[in-house]
Amino acid sequence: MSVQEYLDVHMLSRKIEDAVNAAVRARTPDPVLFISNHMRKAVSSAITKVKARQILDSRGIPTVEVDLFTNKGIFRGAAPSGASCGMYEAIELRDGDNGTYLGNGVSRAVKNINDKISEALIGMDPTLQAQIDQVMIELDKTEKKGDLGVNAIIAVSIAACKAGASQKEVPLYRYIADLAGKTNFRLPVPAFTVINGGKYAGNSLPIQEIMILPVAARKFEEALQMGAETYHHLKAIITEKYGAHGCNVGEDGGYTPNISSLKEGLDLVKEAIGRTGYNDKIKIAINVAATEFCIGTKYDLDHKSPNKSGQNFKSGEDMIDMYKELCEEYPVVSIEDPFDKEDWEHVKPSIFLVVGDDLLMSNPKRIERAAQEAACNALNLKVNQVGTVTEVIEVVKRAKDAHWGVVISQRGGETEDSFIADLSVGLTTGQIKAGVPCRGERLAKNNQLLRIEEELGDQAGYVGDDWRHY
């Protein structure tokens, strides 16, 4: 083939002429670089390979990481993992070989990506997020994604989302907003875990988390500062009262002092907020995770104290009275999972925000039932409970159609992937629950939010006092 024939077959003469004309119109000082970039943009992007590997999450337990290749770059996504898997959420695929990582290996999920998903996606346009996700859903063929594994599917979906953003040459949060039909951007209120209990800690605190919400900050940057300062004041207070060992931390970085009652923990947090001088600017949220200590229709708040367990059961009505008392005595404004996941009778919004986590498990059918029964007024969304970016967008839409708030949440087993930070801004959620204002895998999300706020400049709003409504 002659040079002229080659140029004609690939229509290169016309493409090069267009690039040169564009460079002249732009009066670029570097025409070679400009023409190179112009030609690159003219090439349609396509997925050329999907390669997965097993990595470790923040708990030292295996999870799935994916590199998705296009002719324009490599894009990475990683699957977070929870401490437990509920019966209504999508299913992680684990190897079950107790001789390797105590049965927690994910080599089967990795193999499914490398052998099945990769083959199915090669050649697809990465900007077609819904089609990519649908291909994986149909390839799996199960309701809970148990064949390929949700840990395989969500990692690929996240990587594809990043590739699509790159192809569109927009930041990831803007691309997600486009997928969801959003046009405005607000930075979420960060829910900082400061004390851990429940199954995340070795103390006797029955509930899982005490969190702080800097709702009256002027911007996210200030909210992060307020959270970090409170966290460090809390460390000093715990050290004074319980010794340095009280500052050991739980799975997501909250302190684990040797306390047994919720009020004792709330007193510590209230004192720390007082030392910062942010009394009117920071509110408190608690994650009760009541399913952990529900026995039949009763609740055992002494379930972590062997000598007292089973001696002081509380009814659902008793729990309601306790929550009302806490909200009167402390600046508690949000309670996550105040009752068992099947206790539909008592779980009704009252003077505080009721966040559904175990109650909902990000499951559309559970969300629909909760909306019909007015069982809660906020969703705690975990991406790996759903399975694909497209489905996550739909779940958030359902929650907002019910006029709920939305909390984009971390998992106990996190990675350095900051995807949920961009997701929170792109979907304009009221809160992000990314953990403590320390530890790399938690700060990856908070630091990404700082970058997004800086990039948005005057366009950046902070949800702040409106956090209940987003």
UniProtKB/TrEMBL annotation:
GO BP terms: namely: glycolytic process
EC identifiers of the protein: 4.2.1.11
Instruction: Please give the Pfam families that the UniProt record associates with this protein.
Output: Enolase_C, Enolase_N
What are the catalytic residues?
252 (proton donor), 382 (proton acceptor)
Cofactor(s) it depends on: Mg(2+)
UniProt-listed Gene3D superfamilies: Enolase-like C-terminal domain (3.20.20.120), Enolase-like, N-terminal domain (3.30.390.10)
- Cofactor binding, note field: Mg(2+) is required for catalysis and for stabilizing the dimer.
Q: Does the keyword Flavoprotein apply?
A: no
Every copy of the Enolase C-terminal TIM barrel domain together lies at 184-470
Q: In which pathway does it act?
A: Carbohydrate degradation; glycolysis; pyruvate from D-glyceraldehyde 3-phosphate: step 4/5
Q: List membrane-spanning regions.
A: none
Keywords of the record, alphabetical order, are: Glycolysis, Lyase, Magnesium, Metal-binding
One GO cellular component term: phosphopyruvate hydratase complex
Q: Which residues bind Mg(2+)?
A: 336, 357
The family database entries (CDD domains) matched by this protein are listed as: DD_AtENO3-like, enolase
Keyword set includes Metal-binding: yes
Query: Which residue intervals define the domain Enolase N-terminal in the entry?
Result: 47-176
Q: What class of enzyme is it?
A: lyase
This entry's Gene Ontology molecular function terms read: magnesium ion binding; phosphopyruvate hydratase activity
Checking HAMAP family in the record gives: Enolase
Q: Which family does it belong to?
A: Belongs to the enolase family.
Q: What is this protein called?
A: phosphopyruvate hydratase
